[in-house]
Description:
Elements: E1 3-12, E2 15-24, E3 35-40, E4 49-51, H1 53-61, E5 65-66, H2 68-84
Parallel strand pairs: 1-5
Antiparallel strand pairs: 1-2, 2-3, 3-4
Amino acid sequence: MSVKIRMTRTGANKDIAYRVVATDSRCPRDGKNLEVIGWYDPKHKGVNFSLKMDRIEYWKSKGAQVSDTVKSLIRKSRAAAKSNA
């Protein structure tokens, strides 16, 4: 089973939000997932996402592939952690 870390769409029409999930790559976008590891709300101002970095590292160590959009969120999360430290 190949695992991907990607986003799944949630929310109502014209009020979109996303969850960052670890899922089997063969499952559809909004289908079954293995674990919810974060969220992203593009309409929210300020801090509009949260990621469980320890779980992302766990899944990456197991061979999970990360989508491009989630990679950009990871970069933003690491940059924010450096600026706060």
